[in-house]
Amino acid sequence: MTISSFNPPLRTLMGPGPSDVHPRVLAAMARPTVGHLDPAFIGMMDEVKSLLQYAFQTDNALTFPISAPGSAGMESCFANLVEPGDKVIVCINGVFGLRMKENVERCGGVAIVVEDDWGCSVDAHKVEDALKANPDTKIVAFVQAETSTGVHTDPLILCKLATRYGALSLVDAVTALAGVPVLVDDWGADAVYAGTQKCLSCVPGLSPVTFSERALDKIRKRSSKVQSWFLDLNLIMGYWGEGATRAYHHTAPVNALYALHESLVMLQEEGLENAWHRHAKMHLGLKAGLEAMGLEFAVDEMYRLPQLNAVKIPDGVDDAALRKRALERYGLEIGAGLGAFAGKIWRIGLMGQSATPRNILLCLSTLETLLSQANVKVESGKAVDAAQKILF
């Protein structure tokens, strides 16, 4: 068998990630590869750090991208901050809170679970009760933007609670960064991780992280080695530190970092607040169209993420079959539900370059056509008209 070059089909990505990647970012990846200790590359690394500090709204010196996807960003935070026996309050209101708990346990920590229903925000009162009941808690961990449910949790009160009770705060901002405000220094957050393939609209495979001085102090004073050599920040700090002299740690994904640099330059050009506003406006357009079609959201409006929309699947509709037809006929990818929401919701992403009027109108017209064919009563053209009133 002869295998030829792979040429992927053109898709419109409106699932939970990855999002559409701008041609500028793809073009950046095609630039000549240089050594990962080349002076020119080291200069670009410093720019990436500065641009990420802007995206995270932080002055944290240790702000950089882990050379692996968002899950590795999560693991880097837990592996470095959790020592055997440490109590960690883990807030669970979806799949990624469950993954946090798994990380705590694999690090030998003790997970104190604060659970809320899927589709609901984290209850700060429950968190404070857990802190009072466990005064020796080391970390409070929670998901700001729960990708599995489309729920937003306000990090400010949870970070402040952690600080008040002498604990560190650990925040999953994978789907949040560049889509809704992520204000690391204003919140007093101690460790935050994100992903490149969501609202940054970069290629998958990198995980921006940032650590406060309080977090770094805990890492430096560990009584045991970090269980992961690759993710040990004591080692990585020598590579992503300041200045031209870098200690070799690993071969960085050079061309992927070109892509991240370009996506962050584009974010800077647009402006953070403008990016937040764009995501909010695109959500309102999609919302108007979906509701005109008679569809409902699974999340209360107060806690709804603009960039990840959890939409209830109408009764009698074959979820997998409809998504397959959307992909094959219209090149449109929307996401399935996970866990408790499996088969009950679609996850429609409006992230980064995917958050455009064109994509929204394609999504609405596709759903309208396919739902009509599935014998769901919808009024032809009403969804697109409703969306256009918001978008234009």
From TrEMBL:
By its UniProt entry, which Gene3D superfamilies does this protein fall under? Aspartate Aminotransferase, domain 1 (3.90.1150.10), Type I PLP-dependent aspartate aminotransferase-like (Major domain) (3.40.640.10)
What keywords are assigned to this protein?
Answer: Aminotransferase, Pyridoxal phosphate, Transferase
List modified residues, type N6-(pyridoxal phosphate)lysine.
Answer: 198
- Needed co-factor(s): pyridoxal 5'-phosphate
Name the Gene Ontology biological process terms. glycine biosynthetic process, by transamination of glyoxylate
Please state every residue range assigned to the domain named Aminotransferase class V.
73-337
Ligand binding (substrate) = 347
Q: Recorded GO terms, molecular function?
A: alanine-glyoxylate transaminase activity; L-serine-pyruvate transaminase activity
Would the keyword Transferase turn up in this protein's UniProt record?
yes
The organism's place on the tree of life at top rank = Bacteria
Q: Which family does it belong to?
A: Belongs to the class-V pyridoxal-phosphate-dependent aminotransferase family.
What's the protein name?
Serine--pyruvate aminotransferase
- Which organism encodes this protein? Terasakiella brassicae
Taxonomic lineage of this organism?
A: Bacteria, Pseudomonadati, Pseudomonadota, Alphaproteobacteria, Rhodospirillales
